[in-house]
Specification:
74 residues; mainly alpha; 3 helices
């Protein structure tokens, strides 16, 4: 009997992309003072925008994935 392949190439790519998108907030937080200075906004407003992005990503991704799954794949 052949063992089923759990980690195929598409699964590995999906995992890596999810990891990269998930850690992008940590990179932004590290340079948040420079971003706030460059946009000429307060540090709290820049931090809130990062939090809003993370919240929208966490809430919106499952819904968008479910919606996209209804369409025919090409």
């Amino acid at each position: 009997m052949n063992k089923p392949v759990i980690f195929s190439l598409p699964v590995i790519i999906l995992f890596l992309l999810s990891f990269l998108l998930g850690t992008s907030e940590f990179v932004v937080v590290g340079i948040l003072p420079e971003i706030a200075d460059g946009l000429e906004v307060s540090l709290s407003i820049a931090g809130t925008s990062v939090s809003a992005f993370a919240f929208a990503y966490a809430i919106g991704t499952p819904f968008f994935s479910a919606y996209a799954g209804q369409h025919e794949r090409r």
